[in-house]
Structure prediction request, 84 residues.
Amino acid sequence: MNFEELKALIQSHIEDAKVQVTDLTGTQDHLGLLVVSDVFKGKMLIAQHQIIMDILKEKLKQEIHAVQIKTMTHEQATNQGIQI
Prediction:
């Protein structure tokens, strides 16, 4: 799966999502995800990550071996100086 397709998949479920995908090992099956969205506002970290895992569940069965997830709201990203 190419990274643009992965971004599009997440954005098709979370309309305001800004997504950054990083290949952690060079094999394109160990990925780092940074997802910024206000859908995470007020949710515990585990609930935020579960949203992403639910979106990726089919890809995790076939194409993605491991994923490192970082989630935050747009306000948190701005406060941390993160731009995607």
Remarks:
- The chain has one domain: 3-79.
- The first strand starts at residue 18 and ends at 23.
- The helical segments are 3-13, 45-62, 74-79.
